[in-house]
Amino acid sequence: MCLAVPAKIISVNGDLAKADFGGVRREIVVTLIEDEVKPGDYVLVHAGFAIEKIREEEALKILEAWREIFEEG
Q1: Is 42:53 a contact under the CB 8 Å cutoff?
Q2: CA gap 45, 71 in Å, rounded
Q3: Cα 31 to chain center, whole Å?
Q4: Phi-psi region for residue 51, left (φ > 0), alpha (ψ -120 to 50) or beta?
Q5: Which architecture, in CATH terms, is 5-72?
Q6: In whole angstroms, what is the distance from residue 38 CA to residue 23 CA?
Q7: Which of 1, 28, 39, 73 has its Cβ near the most Cβ atoms within 10 Å?
Q8: Is 38 helix (H, G, I), strand (E, B) or coil?
Q9: What pLDDT does residue 70 have?
Q10: Pairing between strand 24-29 and 16-21?
């Protein structure tokens, strides 16, 4: 099974971006997204690559679902 995790873009430097995964920050590659990626955007990340921009509301819903899953487990 493959999972993509929402992250908020903190900064962009060329093909790389610093992304926040709920308090954990990692560097990701943003070259797969056609639209410009800028700080404040939310993206879905799989294996270190941003694969899609998503709306903030959608990202927050996904993050809430993850929280519920982990709290039950």
Answers
A1: yes
A2: 22
A3: 14
A4: alpha
A5: Roll (2.30)
A6: 18
A7: 28
A8: coil
A9: 82
A10: antiparallel
Contact in structure between 7 and 42 (CB atoms under 8 Å): yes
Structure tokens at 67: 């929280």
Distance between alpha carbon 69 and the CA centroid of its chain, in Å?
18
In the chain, where the domains are located? 5-72
Output the CA–CA distances (angstroms, integers) from residue 44 to 7, 11, 56, 72, in the order listed: 6, 16, 11, 24
pLDDT beneath 70, residues of the chain: 1, 73
Helix then strand then coil, in percent of the chain rounded to 5, is 25, 45, 35
Q: DSSP of 4-63, one letter per residue? A: -EEEEEEEEETTEEEEEETTEEEEEE-TT-SS---TT-EEEEETTEEEEEE-HHHHHHHH
Q: How far apart are CA 19 and CA 10, in angstroms?
A: 5
Which stretch of DSSP H or E encloses residue 68?
Answer: helix 56-72
